[in-house]
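Supplementary Methods, section 5.1.

A reviewer requested that the exact input to the structure prediction be made available. We therefore reproduce it here, unchanged from the version used in the analyses.
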Amino acid sequence: MRDEDRLRRFRLGTARRLRENTTSAEQRLWRELDRVPLLRTHFRRQAPIGPYVVDFVCLRERLVIEVDGPSHTETAASQRDTARTLWLEQQGYRVLRFWNQEVYENIDGVLDTIHAALYGSLGAPPAPPSSEEL
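The structure derived from this sequence is encoded token-by-token as follows.
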């Protein structure tokens, strides 16, 4: 088996394990994400992107959402988060980070931020494509 195949299998296995062991904040956000209107797209959870597995991603809009707990305040974890965000941004992704407490205490604000990242200040998703665009 080639190294690329082994790495791919490892990343997919890691993503699967993370999906099976999500934090309560990640579970809450996942349940609530359907309140953000999406047109012809969706969010994936615990999705592998390059060397990382991100909490949530909307691939079409290249938007990554990370939900961080207390361990992310430690210096080493914070440095890893910074490097991870930089790498994702270099790949063309936008990264939103929320603390667990934000998800628990201000889910509406979190969803508003995600909506704004997807649709800007327009306040609504783009119009469905015309039959000519399909």
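The mean pLDDT is 80. These observations are discussed further in the main text.
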